[in-house]
Each structure stands twice: as structure tokens, then as C-alpha cells.
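Q: Got a minute? One more chain.
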Amino acid sequence: MPRPRDSRSTALTPALLFFSVCLAACGVPGAPVPPTPKIPQAPTDLVARQSGERVVLRWTLPRLHTDGTRLPGPPRLEVHRAFLDDAQPPLEAFAVAARLAFALPGSVVGSFLHNDIVVFPDVLGASLLGEQAGQFAVYGVKAVNAKGQDAGFSNLVAVRVYPVPEAVTGLLSRVSERAIDLRWTPPRRTSGGAPLEAVAGYQIYRSDTGEEGSFVLHGTAASARYENTQFRFGARYFYRVRTLAQYAADTVESESSASLEVFARDLFPPPAPANLVAVGGASRVDLTWDASTAPDTAGYFIYRGLRPDALLERISPSLITALSFADTTVAPGVTYYYAVTAVDRDGNEGPTSAPTAVTPFKPE
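A: Always. Here it is, folded:
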């Protein structure tokens, strides 16, 4: 007789039925998908210019990954360089010719950062500039993550490089009433020792503090002399000069001269007042004169004597700011000789005016 089947061996419990349905609906899980790599965005605003024996590169520091998420900190930066005949080489040609010139770890990028702009000097030196004279130094920058991955090169920039003049020497100054006069020895050779072909002029930089980074272009000169008329007495200035060398249609600037400190001390007295008039009265003399033409005149001193050829004595105890003076310390019937001097704000006293004679009379 057949054995009855145990209903428990074929019936599905509710929990087992739910699990079976999930397996049928979900299928078998596939292989795990690797996470998308976090790659820094490539710079897009790289610019470059030659300054002395270096090419100064500037670009905005990348702050985002290619997926738009924010970088946790500065990425590793690579500066690639190639010397080429073409200022606009195809990217493929640049990638083949370029060599890694510098690699900046993220930990040191801050040393070259100025308001989110990376300013990096590629110091080529006199020897390399001589070898590559007239060639284009072409640059591209990469931002690289910790795994060595990058989004490719930045925009490419090219600078035609040349040897630079040797630094200006013999910078001297002389302060006059109207200008700070600068002079220097013109350079004759490049920094590498070759004869300097042509000089296009000079750039004069000035600073109020002398600190690095504070010098700004103040003016230009065609010869080895510059008159700085924009100054004030009592101020201190610092100057540097650079030479512009001419190569066909291109110019290149030398390294800076040594800094020259100039204190614009006022040692220049104002001229003598003009048109001194003396009027004799009853036991008094009234004086008037024209104002001094010096803009920094602070006042005047009055001098008096009994002979025109003798040394006159100052009779005003302090500076007179008016253009008139009454002398009431005179004797009637005596002839007196008067003169006036102008004094500036720094205490420089000018020459006396031409003496004028007057004789006061007795009061009635």
C-alpha cells in the first residue's frame, strides 16, 4: 500500500514563499561596480611671461574634481615644458616633446599661492636662455590626485625666450628742489657674458617700504637717467632699475638692480621775498613785502641795521606769517636799513632781500 506523502515536505511556509518570490524578482546580484575616481579639474587660464632669467607662470588653483565635488585640499601640480619652434603646437606634439619640469606636492602649493592664483617662477638661467634664444618655451600644467590620475593638460601657453641684460649697476641719486635724479651705468653684456645687441630703454620701479613684492613700475627712461618729479620732501623711497633688451620686434626685461634707498630731505631754502617797502612814521616803521614763491614757505624773519654794508640783526623774535611788520623800537631821525628772509617748513632760511632805507620822524 502506498505510503501517504507528508504534507510538510511539499507545502511552502509564508516565509519561504516570500524568499522565493524575492529571488525570482531580484535575480542574481552582478559584480561590484568600482567607485568613480576623483580627478582634479585641469587649469584653464594658464598665462606666462619672461621676467629676467625666469618665466613667471600664473593660473587659478583648481578647487573641484571633474565630477563637480570639492577637492579636500590643493592637488599635486605638475609643470611641463618644451622648447619648440611653434607657438601653438598641437596637443599631441606638445605631449611628446614636453618634459616634467617641476612637481609641486599639495603641501607646498600654498607657498606659491596669492589670492587663489598660483604664481610659479621657472628659473631658466643664463646658460639655458643662451641655448634656446628665440625659441618658444611652451608650458602646460596638470593637477594630479594621490593615485597619479589627472584630467589632462591645462591650456598651453608659449613665451619666446631670450638672453637678458646683466643687472644694472652704479645706481645713484641726487635730490634737487624739483626732482629725485637717478643715474646708473648702462649694461654692455647679457647675464651670460655675451655682448648686448640693443637696449630699448629702462624700467624704473619704486617702493615706499623696500620690501619684496612692494615695488611697482613708476616710469621709463630712454637713457641711463631718470627724473622723478612725483615725490615729497621728508619721505623715504626705494628704487630699482631694469634694462629692456631689444630682439627684433620683441623686448625682454633684465633682473632688477640692487635697491637704492633715498631720503628726500629738503635742504633748499626759499628765495628772498621781493618788493620790500619801508614807510617811516612817528617813532615807527611799517614794512610790507610780496609773498615768497616757494610753496613750502612757513614764514619770514625781519632784519635791521644802521649801515647797508654791515651785518643786519634779526629783530623778529619768531616767524612772521603775515606779509607786514611794524617796528616800534626805532629812534626818530635815525636812518635804518631793513631786509626780509623767507623760511620753509623744514627750517631752511633763504637769503635776505635787498636792504631798503627809511628814517622815522618825531611825533608832533
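A: The longest strand covers residues 236-247.
Q: Perfect, thanks.
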